Amino acid sequence: MNTLLSDSAPTPAGGNSLGQTLTIRGGRPLVGRVDVKGAKNLATKAMVASLLGETASILRDVPEISDVHVVRSLLEVHGVEVTELEDGVLKLDPSGAVSANFEEIDAHAGASRIPILFCGPLLHLLHQAFIPDLGGCRIGDRPIDFHLDALRSFGAIVEKQPSGIRLSAPNGLHGANIELPYPSVGATEQVLLTAVRAKGTTELRNAAIEPEIMDLIAVLQKMGAIISYEPNRVIFIEGVESLRGYDHRSIFDRNEAASWACAALATDGDIFVAGAKQQEMLTFLNVFRKVGGDFDIAEDGIRFRRGGALKPVTVETDVHPGFMTDWQQPLIVALTQAEGESIVHETVYENRLGFTRALVQMGADIVVHPEGIANSDRRVPRRALEQAAVINGPTPLHAADVVVPDLRGGYSYVIAALAAEGESTVRNIGIIRRGYEKFLEKLTALGADFDVTD
Ligand code: EPZ
Protein backbone atom coordinates (compact mmCIF):
# COMPACT_ATOMS: atom_id res chain seq x y z
CA MET A 1 0.00 0.00 0.00
CA ASN A 2 1.44 3.42 -0.86
CA THR A 3 2.02 5.84 1.99
CA LEU A 4 1.17 9.21 0.49
CA LEU A 5 2.06 12.61 1.81
CA SER A 6 -0.41 15.24 0.70
CA ASP A 7 0.39 15.54 -2.97
CA SER A 8 -1.73 18.57 -3.59
CA ALA A 9 -0.01 20.66 -0.93
CA PRO A 10 1.46 23.66 -2.72
CA THR A 11 5.21 23.33 -3.10
CA PRO A 12 6.74 26.66 -2.07
CA ALA A 13 9.38 27.77 -4.56
CA GLY A 14 12.40 25.62 -3.78
CA GLY A 15 10.47 24.12 -0.88
CA ASN A 16 11.91 21.25 1.15
CA SER A 17 9.69 18.71 -0.60
CA LEU A 18 12.34 18.69 -3.36
CA GLY A 19 14.05 16.25 -0.97
CA GLN A 20 11.28 13.68 -0.99
CA THR A 21 12.24 10.12 -2.00
CA LEU A 22 10.20 7.44 -3.75
CA THR A 23 10.84 3.74 -3.08
CA ILE A 24 9.32 1.99 -6.08
CA ARG A 25 8.64 -1.73 -6.47
CA GLY A 26 8.65 -2.23 -10.23
CA GLY A 27 7.56 -4.87 -12.70
CA ARG A 28 3.84 -3.99 -12.69
CA PRO A 29 1.96 -2.43 -15.63
CA LEU A 30 0.27 0.94 -15.08
CA VAL A 31 -3.44 0.50 -15.76
CA GLY A 32 -6.28 2.95 -15.27
CA ARG A 33 -7.28 6.58 -15.87
CA VAL A 34 -5.55 9.90 -15.26
CA ASP A 35 -7.06 13.36 -15.71
CA VAL A 36 -4.82 15.93 -17.41
CA LYS A 37 -5.62 19.56 -16.62
CA GLY A 38 -4.38 22.77 -18.26
CA ALA A 39 -0.92 23.04 -19.80
CA LYS A 40 1.91 24.16 -17.51
CA ASN A 41 3.38 25.96 -20.54
CA LEU A 42 0.21 27.98 -21.18
CA ALA A 43 -1.42 28.51 -17.78
CA THR A 44 1.69 30.16 -16.32
CA LYS A 45 1.90 32.57 -19.31
CA ALA A 46 -1.81 33.38 -19.24
CA MET A 47 -1.38 34.29 -15.56
CA VAL A 48 1.33 36.78 -16.54
CA ALA A 49 -0.93 38.16 -19.29
CA SER A 50 -3.52 39.11 -16.65
CA LEU A 51 -1.16 41.97 -15.67
CA LEU A 52 -1.97 43.62 -19.01
CA GLY A 53 -5.71 43.86 -18.32
CA GLU A 54 -7.46 46.80 -16.64
CA THR A 55 -10.03 44.41 -15.17
CA ALA A 56 -9.81 40.99 -13.51
CA SER A 57 -9.21 37.78 -15.46
CA ILE A 58 -10.49 34.24 -14.87
CA LEU A 59 -8.28 31.27 -15.79
CA ARG A 60 -9.79 27.76 -15.77
CA ASP A 61 -8.23 24.28 -15.64
CA VAL A 62 -5.17 25.65 -13.85
CA PRO A 63 -3.01 22.70 -12.77
CA GLU A 64 -1.94 22.34 -9.13
CA ILE A 65 1.84 22.51 -9.86
CA SER A 66 4.69 24.45 -8.34
CA ASP A 67 5.37 26.47 -11.50
CA VAL A 68 1.89 27.95 -11.05
CA HIS A 69 2.61 28.67 -7.39
CA VAL A 70 5.81 30.54 -8.34
CA VAL A 71 3.99 32.74 -10.86
CA ARG A 72 1.09 33.32 -8.43
CA SER A 73 3.50 34.38 -5.73
CA LEU A 74 5.37 36.71 -8.09
CA LEU A 75 2.08 38.29 -9.21
CA GLU A 76 1.07 38.77 -5.57
CA VAL A 77 4.32 40.52 -4.65
CA HIS A 78 3.41 42.95 -7.45
CA GLY A 79 0.03 43.60 -5.87
CA VAL A 80 -2.11 41.40 -8.10
CA GLU A 81 -4.93 39.81 -6.09
CA VAL A 82 -5.11 36.09 -6.93
CA THR A 83 -8.01 34.05 -5.54
CA GLU A 84 -9.02 30.44 -6.19
CA LEU A 85 -12.73 30.60 -6.99
CA GLU A 86 -12.96 26.80 -7.08
CA ASP A 87 -10.62 23.87 -7.80
CA GLY A 88 -8.45 24.87 -10.76
CA VAL A 89 -10.16 28.26 -11.35
CA LEU A 90 -8.13 31.38 -10.55
CA LYS A 91 -9.32 34.98 -10.49
CA LEU A 92 -6.48 37.42 -11.13
CA ASP A 93 -7.16 41.10 -10.36
CA PRO A 94 -4.32 43.44 -11.41
CA SER A 95 -6.05 46.66 -10.33
CA GLY A 96 -3.82 46.95 -7.28
CA ALA A 97 -0.57 46.22 -9.12
CA VAL A 98 2.46 48.07 -7.74
CA SER A 99 6.20 47.84 -8.00
CA ALA A 100 7.54 45.13 -5.77
CA ASN A 101 10.59 45.47 -3.61
CA PHE A 102 13.80 43.76 -4.60
CA GLU A 103 13.88 41.32 -1.69
CA GLU A 104 10.42 39.98 -2.39
CA ILE A 105 11.17 39.49 -6.08
CA ASP A 106 14.58 38.03 -5.42
CA ALA A 107 12.97 35.38 -3.18
CA HIS A 108 11.77 33.86 -6.46
CA ALA A 109 15.19 33.74 -8.06
CA GLY A 110 16.03 30.36 -9.53
CA ALA A 111 12.53 29.01 -9.18
CA SER A 112 11.39 29.03 -12.80
CA ARG A 113 11.92 30.65 -16.20
CA ILE A 114 8.54 32.34 -16.32
CA PRO A 115 9.58 35.57 -14.52
CA ILE A 116 11.34 36.75 -17.71
CA LEU A 117 7.88 37.11 -19.25
CA PHE A 118 6.90 39.73 -16.67
CA CYS A 119 9.12 42.30 -18.45
CA GLY A 120 6.67 43.62 -21.05
CA PRO A 121 3.58 43.74 -18.83
CA LEU A 122 5.46 45.41 -15.96
CA LEU A 123 7.03 47.97 -18.29
CA HIS A 124 3.59 48.87 -19.66
CA LEU A 125 2.12 49.02 -16.18
CA LEU A 126 4.91 50.54 -14.10
CA HIS A 127 7.51 51.69 -16.68
CA GLN A 128 10.04 49.60 -14.81
CA ALA A 129 10.75 45.98 -13.86
CA PHE A 130 13.28 43.88 -12.01
CA ILE A 131 13.54 40.19 -13.02
CA PRO A 132 15.46 37.78 -10.74
CA ASP A 133 17.87 35.19 -12.03
CA LEU A 134 15.89 32.51 -13.79
CA GLY A 135 15.49 28.83 -12.87
CA GLY A 136 14.03 26.07 -14.98
CA CYS A 137 15.37 22.69 -16.01
CA ARG A 138 19.15 22.34 -16.49
CA ILE A 139 18.85 20.98 -20.02
CA GLY A 140 21.13 23.52 -21.63
CA ASP A 141 22.41 27.06 -21.13
CA ARG A 142 18.89 28.46 -21.52
CA PRO A 143 20.14 31.92 -22.64
CA ILE A 144 17.70 34.86 -22.87
CA ASP A 145 19.45 36.92 -25.53
CA PHE A 146 16.46 36.71 -27.89
CA HIS A 147 14.25 38.10 -25.10
CA LEU A 148 16.55 41.01 -24.22
CA ASP A 149 17.15 41.92 -27.89
CA ALA A 150 13.39 41.98 -28.46
CA LEU A 151 12.77 44.20 -25.41
CA ARG A 152 15.42 46.64 -26.60
CA SER A 153 13.70 46.70 -30.02
CA PHE A 154 10.54 47.87 -28.23
CA GLY A 155 12.52 50.73 -26.64
CA ALA A 156 13.22 49.24 -23.22
CA ILE A 157 16.45 50.05 -21.41
CA VAL A 158 17.86 46.70 -20.23
CA GLU A 159 20.62 46.39 -17.63
CA LYS A 160 21.88 42.94 -16.69
CA GLN A 161 22.98 42.95 -13.05
CA PRO A 162 24.58 40.18 -10.94
CA SER A 163 21.26 39.49 -9.18
CA GLY A 164 18.96 39.78 -12.19
CA ILE A 165 17.81 42.19 -14.88
CA ARG A 166 16.67 45.76 -14.34
CA LEU A 167 14.50 47.30 -17.07
CA SER A 168 12.95 50.69 -17.64
CA ALA A 169 10.85 52.39 -20.32
CA PRO A 170 10.47 56.06 -19.30
CA ASN A 171 8.91 56.95 -22.66
CA GLY A 172 6.78 53.84 -22.99
CA LEU A 173 7.23 51.10 -25.58
CA HIS A 174 6.76 51.29 -29.38
CA GLY A 175 6.14 48.62 -32.02
CA ALA A 176 9.13 46.78 -33.52
CA ASN A 177 10.25 44.62 -36.42
CA ILE A 178 11.71 41.43 -34.96
CA GLU A 179 13.07 38.31 -36.61
CA LEU A 180 13.96 35.54 -34.15
CA PRO A 181 17.16 33.61 -34.90
CA TYR A 182 15.26 30.47 -33.83
CA PRO A 183 11.48 29.90 -33.30
CA SER A 184 11.88 30.26 -29.54
CA VAL A 185 8.70 29.65 -27.52
CA GLY A 186 9.69 32.00 -24.72
CA ALA A 187 10.93 34.77 -26.99
CA THR A 188 7.71 34.58 -29.02
CA GLU A 189 5.71 34.93 -25.80
CA GLN A 190 7.94 37.83 -24.76
CA VAL A 191 7.15 39.65 -28.01
CA LEU A 192 3.41 38.92 -27.79
CA LEU A 193 3.13 40.09 -24.17
CA THR A 194 5.03 43.30 -24.98
CA ALA A 195 3.66 44.19 -28.44
CA VAL A 196 -0.05 44.08 -27.56
CA ARG A 197 0.17 47.36 -25.59
CA ALA A 198 3.08 48.98 -27.49
CA LYS A 199 2.42 52.11 -29.59
CA GLY A 200 2.16 51.02 -33.24
CA THR A 201 2.55 47.73 -35.06
CA THR A 202 4.97 44.87 -34.43
CA GLU A 203 6.00 42.32 -37.03
CA LEU A 204 7.45 39.11 -35.63
CA ARG A 205 9.16 36.68 -38.03
CA ASN A 206 10.35 33.12 -37.42
CA ALA A 207 7.90 32.88 -34.52
CA ALA A 208 7.15 29.76 -32.51
CA ILE A 209 3.67 28.40 -33.33
CA GLU A 210 3.18 25.70 -30.69
CA PRO A 211 -0.48 25.11 -29.65
CA GLU A 212 0.33 26.82 -26.34
CA ILE A 213 1.44 29.92 -28.26
CA MET A 214 -1.82 29.90 -30.25
CA ASP A 215 -3.74 29.55 -26.98
CA LEU A 216 -1.87 32.56 -25.55
CA ILE A 217 -2.85 34.51 -28.69
CA ALA A 218 -6.46 33.46 -28.02
CA VAL A 219 -6.15 34.77 -24.44
CA LEU A 220 -4.74 38.11 -25.67
CA GLN A 221 -7.42 38.39 -28.36
CA LYS A 222 -10.08 37.94 -25.64
CA MET A 223 -8.43 40.85 -23.83
CA GLY A 224 -8.84 43.11 -26.87
CA ALA A 225 -5.49 42.60 -28.59
CA ILE A 226 -5.25 42.64 -32.40
CA ILE A 227 -2.94 39.78 -33.45
CA SER A 228 -2.88 38.27 -36.93
CA TYR A 229 -1.18 34.94 -37.51
CA GLU A 230 0.23 34.91 -41.05
CA PRO A 231 1.75 32.06 -43.10
CA ASN A 232 5.44 31.10 -42.62
CA ARG A 233 5.73 31.86 -38.90
CA VAL A 234 4.92 35.59 -39.27
CA ILE A 235 2.78 37.29 -36.60
CA PHE A 236 1.53 40.91 -36.80
CA ILE A 237 0.44 42.68 -33.63
CA GLU A 238 -1.29 46.08 -33.68
CA GLY A 239 -0.73 47.75 -30.30
CA VAL A 240 -3.85 49.00 -28.51
CA GLU A 241 -4.38 51.59 -25.77
CA SER A 242 -5.87 49.24 -23.22
CA LEU A 243 -6.84 45.64 -22.58
CA ARG A 244 -9.49 44.07 -20.36
CA GLY A 245 -9.48 40.87 -18.35
CA TYR A 246 -10.17 37.49 -19.98
CA ASP A 247 -12.13 34.37 -19.11
CA HIS A 248 -10.22 31.39 -20.51
CA ARG A 249 -9.92 27.64 -20.13
CA SER A 250 -6.33 26.54 -20.71
CA ILE A 251 -5.41 24.09 -23.47
CA PHE A 252 -4.65 20.64 -22.02
CA ASP A 253 -1.09 19.66 -21.11
CA ARG A 254 0.30 17.81 -24.16
CA ASN A 255 3.52 17.06 -22.35
CA GLU A 256 1.80 15.34 -19.44
CA ALA A 257 -0.46 13.40 -21.84
CA ALA A 258 2.55 12.22 -23.85
CA SER A 259 4.37 11.29 -20.64
CA TRP A 260 1.56 8.96 -19.49
CA ALA A 261 1.38 7.46 -22.99
CA CYS A 262 5.08 6.58 -22.78
CA ALA A 263 4.50 5.16 -19.29
CA ALA A 264 1.92 2.80 -20.80
CA LEU A 265 4.48 1.66 -23.40
CA ALA A 266 7.32 1.29 -20.88
CA THR A 267 5.30 -0.71 -18.32
CA ASP A 268 3.15 -2.61 -20.89
CA GLY A 269 0.19 -0.86 -19.34
CA ASP A 270 -3.11 0.60 -20.48
CA ILE A 271 -3.80 4.23 -19.56
CA PHE A 272 -6.78 6.43 -20.42
CA VAL A 273 -5.65 10.07 -20.41
CA ALA A 274 -8.78 12.15 -19.89
CA GLY A 275 -8.50 15.62 -21.42
CA ALA A 276 -6.00 14.66 -24.13
CA LYS A 277 -6.95 15.71 -27.66
CA GLN A 278 -5.77 14.27 -30.98
CA GLN A 279 -5.25 17.50 -32.94
CA GLU A 280 -2.49 18.85 -30.73
CA MET A 281 -0.78 15.42 -30.49
CA LEU A 282 -0.80 14.28 -34.15
CA THR A 283 2.99 14.05 -34.44
CA PHE A 284 3.32 12.27 -31.09
CA LEU A 285 0.58 9.77 -32.05
CA ASN A 286 2.39 8.92 -35.30
CA VAL A 287 5.60 8.09 -33.40
CA PHE A 288 3.61 6.27 -30.68
CA ARG A 289 2.05 4.03 -33.37
CA LYS A 290 5.41 3.45 -35.13
CA VAL A 291 6.94 2.30 -31.83
CA GLY A 292 4.16 -0.30 -31.60
CA GLY A 293 1.72 1.55 -29.41
CA ASP A 294 -2.03 1.39 -29.82
CA PHE A 295 -4.35 4.31 -29.11
CA ASP A 296 -8.10 4.96 -29.19
CA ILE A 297 -9.36 8.53 -29.56
CA ALA A 298 -12.48 9.20 -27.46
CA GLU A 299 -14.54 12.36 -27.02
CA ASP A 300 -13.08 12.98 -23.56
CA GLY A 301 -9.53 11.64 -23.91
CA ILE A 302 -7.16 9.11 -25.45
CA ARG A 303 -6.51 5.50 -24.41
CA PHE A 304 -2.83 4.47 -24.74
CA ARG A 305 -1.42 0.94 -24.55
CA ARG A 306 1.10 -1.37 -26.19
CA GLY A 307 -0.12 -3.01 -29.42
CA GLY A 308 2.46 -5.81 -29.30
CA ALA A 309 6.30 -5.97 -29.30
CA LEU A 310 7.84 -2.48 -29.33
CA LYS A 311 9.69 -1.50 -32.50
CA PRO A 312 12.74 0.79 -32.88
CA VAL A 313 12.33 4.27 -34.43
CA THR A 314 14.47 7.24 -35.43
CA VAL A 315 13.09 10.51 -34.02
CA GLU A 316 14.30 14.10 -34.49
CA THR A 317 13.00 16.58 -31.93
CA ASP A 318 11.95 19.92 -33.43
CA VAL A 319 9.75 22.95 -32.98
CA HIS A 320 6.02 22.49 -33.61
CA PRO A 321 4.61 20.73 -35.60
CA GLY A 322 7.62 18.47 -35.15
CA PHE A 323 8.23 15.98 -32.33
CA MET A 324 8.49 18.09 -29.16
CA THR A 325 11.74 17.98 -27.22
CA ASP A 326 9.68 17.55 -24.02
CA TRP A 327 8.43 14.20 -25.30
CA GLN A 328 11.80 12.56 -25.98
CA GLN A 329 12.80 11.76 -22.40
CA PRO A 330 9.81 9.52 -21.50
CA LEU A 331 9.90 8.03 -25.03
CA ILE A 332 13.53 6.94 -24.57
CA VAL A 333 12.48 4.85 -21.55
CA ALA A 334 10.02 2.98 -23.78
CA LEU A 335 12.63 2.60 -26.54
CA THR A 336 14.87 0.64 -24.14
CA GLN A 337 12.24 -2.11 -24.52
CA ALA A 338 12.01 -1.93 -28.34
CA GLU A 339 13.59 -4.76 -30.37
CA GLY A 340 16.45 -3.13 -32.25
CA GLU A 341 18.32 0.16 -32.62
CA SER A 342 16.54 3.49 -32.11
CA ILE A 343 18.03 6.95 -32.56
CA VAL A 344 16.80 10.17 -30.93
CA HIS A 345 18.27 13.38 -32.37
CA GLU A 346 17.77 16.11 -29.74
CA THR A 347 17.98 19.26 -31.88
CA VAL A 348 16.38 21.84 -29.54
CA TYR A 349 18.53 21.72 -26.39
CA GLU A 350 22.24 21.05 -26.16
CA ASN A 351 22.13 18.99 -22.98
CA ARG A 352 18.87 17.11 -22.65
CA LEU A 353 20.22 13.55 -22.92
CA GLY A 354 22.30 13.48 -19.72
CA PHE A 355 19.39 11.84 -17.92
CA THR A 356 20.10 8.61 -19.86
CA ARG A 357 23.09 7.86 -17.60
CA ALA A 358 20.72 6.68 -14.87
CA LEU A 359 18.83 4.50 -17.38
CA VAL A 360 22.14 2.83 -18.30
CA GLN A 361 22.66 2.28 -14.55
CA MET A 362 19.32 0.42 -14.64
CA GLY A 363 20.47 -1.84 -17.48
CA ALA A 364 19.58 0.14 -20.61
CA ASP A 365 21.91 0.14 -23.63
CA ILE A 366 22.11 3.84 -24.54
CA VAL A 367 25.05 5.68 -26.10
CA VAL A 368 24.92 9.50 -26.25
CA HIS A 369 26.76 11.26 -29.11
CA PRO A 370 27.49 14.78 -27.75
CA GLU A 371 28.09 16.14 -31.24
CA GLY A 372 25.02 14.44 -32.71
CA ILE A 373 24.94 11.99 -35.61
CA ALA A 374 25.00 13.06 -39.25
CA ASN A 375 22.80 10.83 -41.35
CA SER A 376 21.43 11.14 -44.86
CA ASP A 377 17.71 10.99 -44.27
CA ARG A 378 17.50 13.98 -41.89
CA ARG A 379 14.25 15.97 -42.09
CA VAL A 380 15.21 18.56 -39.46
CA PRO A 381 18.12 20.89 -40.28
CA ARG A 382 21.17 19.94 -38.20
CA ARG A 383 21.91 22.47 -35.43
CA ALA A 384 25.40 23.10 -34.12
CA LEU A 385 24.46 22.19 -30.54
CA GLU A 386 22.42 19.08 -31.16
CA GLN A 387 23.07 15.73 -29.53
CA ALA A 388 21.89 12.19 -30.30
CA ALA A 389 21.14 9.04 -28.30
CA VAL A 390 21.40 5.54 -29.78
CA ILE A 391 19.23 3.06 -27.86
CA ASN A 392 19.52 -0.70 -28.37
CA GLY A 393 16.90 -3.01 -26.94
CA PRO A 394 15.18 -4.78 -25.54
CA THR A 395 17.20 -4.72 -22.30
CA PRO A 396 15.59 -5.79 -19.03
CA LEU A 397 15.72 -2.90 -16.54
CA HIS A 398 16.75 -3.57 -12.95
CA ALA A 399 16.31 -1.44 -9.85
CA ALA A 400 18.73 1.40 -9.02
CA ASP A 401 19.17 4.39 -6.70
CA VAL A 402 18.80 7.57 -8.81
CA VAL A 403 18.43 11.33 -8.28
CA VAL A 404 15.94 13.40 -10.36
CA PRO A 405 17.92 15.77 -12.66
CA ASP A 406 15.09 17.80 -14.20
CA LEU A 407 11.34 17.74 -14.71
CA ARG A 408 10.93 15.34 -17.65
CA GLY A 409 14.05 13.34 -16.76
CA GLY A 410 12.63 12.85 -13.28
CA TYR A 411 9.33 11.62 -14.64
CA SER A 412 11.27 9.27 -16.93
CA TYR A 413 13.17 7.79 -13.97
CA VAL A 414 9.93 7.01 -12.19
CA ILE A 415 8.47 5.13 -15.16
CA ALA A 416 11.80 3.35 -15.69
CA ALA A 417 11.72 2.24 -12.03
CA LEU A 418 8.11 1.11 -12.50
CA ALA A 419 9.17 -0.92 -15.56
CA ALA A 420 12.25 -2.35 -13.81
CA GLU A 421 12.36 -5.53 -11.74
CA GLY A 422 13.08 -4.90 -8.06
CA GLU A 423 12.93 -1.99 -5.65
CA SER A 424 14.33 1.35 -6.87
CA THR A 425 14.99 4.58 -5.01
CA VAL A 426 14.21 7.86 -6.81
CA ARG A 427 15.38 10.95 -4.90
CA ASN A 428 14.48 14.67 -5.15
CA ILE A 429 11.06 14.00 -6.62
CA GLY A 430 9.84 17.48 -5.67
CA ILE A 431 11.12 18.72 -9.05
CA ILE A 432 8.48 16.53 -10.73
CA ARG A 433 5.77 18.56 -9.00
CA ARG A 434 6.84 21.56 -11.10
CA GLY A 435 4.95 20.12 -14.03
CA TYR A 436 2.91 17.06 -13.06
CA GLU A 437 -0.21 17.74 -11.00
CA LYS A 438 -1.15 15.23 -8.24
CA PHE A 439 1.63 13.00 -9.56
CA LEU A 440 1.72 10.51 -6.67
CA GLU A 441 -2.07 10.26 -6.51
CA LYS A 442 -2.12 9.44 -10.23
CA LEU A 443 0.57 6.77 -9.81
CA THR A 444 -1.49 5.17 -7.05
CA ALA A 445 -4.63 5.27 -9.20
CA LEU A 446 -2.69 3.43 -11.93
CA GLY A 447 -1.67 0.64 -9.56
CA ALA A 448 1.95 1.67 -8.93
CA ASP A 449 3.49 0.17 -5.77
CA PHE A 450 5.64 2.74 -3.94
CA ASP A 451 6.35 4.52 -0.67
CA VAL A 452 7.22 8.19 -0.16
CA THR A 453 9.65 9.40 2.49
CA ASP A 454 10.94 12.88 3.31
C1 EPZ B 1 9.64 26.38 -23.49
O1 EPZ B 1 10.93 26.70 -22.99
C2 EPZ B 1 9.09 25.33 -22.56
N1 EPZ B 1 9.03 25.85 -21.20
C3 EPZ B 1 10.00 24.09 -22.57
O2 EPZ B 1 9.37 23.09 -21.77
C4 EPZ B 1 10.09 23.57 -24.00
O3 EPZ B 1 11.00 22.49 -24.03
C5 EPZ B 1 10.58 24.68 -24.93
O4 EPZ B 1 9.71 25.84 -24.81
C6 EPZ B 1 10.59 24.24 -26.39
O5 EPZ B 1 9.31 23.82 -26.76
C7 EPZ B 1 8.04 26.72 -20.87
O6 EPZ B 1 7.21 27.07 -21.70
C8 EPZ B 1 8.05 27.22 -19.45
P1 EPZ B 1 12.80 28.06 -26.24
P2 EPZ B 1 11.73 27.99 -23.59
O7 EPZ B 1 12.99 29.51 -25.98
O8 EPZ B 1 10.74 29.03 -23.96
C9 EPZ B 1 17.34 28.71 -27.35
C10 EPZ B 1 9.18 21.52 -20.05
O9 EPZ B 1 9.70 20.41 -19.89
N2 EPZ B 1 17.18 30.12 -26.92
O10 EPZ B 1 11.86 27.63 -27.32
O11 EPZ B 1 12.80 28.33 -22.65
C11 EPZ B 1 17.30 27.75 -26.16
O12 EPZ B 1 18.55 27.68 -25.53
C12 EPZ B 1 10.02 22.68 -20.55
O13 EPZ B 1 7.97 21.81 -19.84
C13 EPZ B 1 18.24 31.00 -27.10
O14 EPZ B 1 19.29 30.63 -27.61
O15 EPZ B 1 12.36 27.33 -24.91
C14 EPZ B 1 16.91 26.45 -26.80
O16 EPZ B 1 18.06 25.83 -27.37
C15 EPZ B 1 11.47 22.29 -20.76
N3 EPZ B 1 18.08 32.29 -26.69
C16 EPZ B 1 15.98 26.89 -27.95
O17 EPZ B 1 16.24 28.29 -28.15
C17 EPZ B 1 16.92 32.75 -26.13
O18 EPZ B 1 16.83 33.95 -25.78
C18 EPZ B 1 14.51 26.68 -27.64
O19 EPZ B 1 14.24 27.40 -26.45
C19 EPZ B 1 15.85 31.83 -25.95
C20 EPZ B 1 16.00 30.51 -26.36
TrEMBL record:
Kindly report, in one word, the top-level EC class recorded for this enzyme.
transferase
Which SUPFAM superfamilies would you find in this protein's record? EPT/RTPC-like
Instruction: Spell out the InterPro entries in the cross-references.
Output: Enolpyruvate_Tfrase_dom, Enolpyruvate_Tfrase_sf, MurA_subfamily, RNA3'P_cycl/enolpyr_Trfase_a/b, UDP_GlcNAc_COvinyl_MurA
Catalytic activity, as annotated: phosphoenolpyruvate + UDP-N-acetyl-alpha-D-glucosamine = UDP-N-acetyl-3-O-(1-carboxyvinyl)-alpha-D-glucosamine + phosphate
The organism of origin for this protein: Microbacterium dauci
Q: Which residues bind UDP-N-acetyl-alpha-D-glucosamine per the record?
A: 113, 326, 348
A Pfam cross-reference name: EPSP_synthase
Q: Which residues form the active site?
A: 137 (proton donor)
What's its EC? 2.5.1.7
- Name of the protein in its database record: UDP-N-acetylglucosamine 1-carboxyvinyltransferase
Q: Where are the annotated segments for Disordered?
A: 1-20
Q: What does the UniProt entry say about where the protein is found? A: Cytoplasm
Q: Which GO terms describe its molecular function?
A: UDP-N-acetylglucosamine 1-carboxyvinyltransferase activity
The record places domain Enolpyruvate transferase at 25-443
The protein's UniProt keywords, in alphabetical order, are: Cell cycle, Cell division, Cell shape, Cell wall biogenesis/degradation, Cytoplasm, Peptidoglycan synthesis, Pyruvate, Transferase
Pathway terms, separated by semicolons: Cell wall biogenesis; peptidoglycan biosynthesis
Carrying 2-(S-cysteinyl)pyruvic acid O-phosphothioketal, the residues are 137
Tell me, what does this protein do in biology? Cell wall formation. Adds enolpyruvyl to UDP-N-acetylglucosamine.
Question: What family does this belong to?
Answer: Belongs to the EPSP synthase family. MurA subfamily.
**Which of this chain's residues are annotated to bind phosphoenolpyruvate?**
40-41
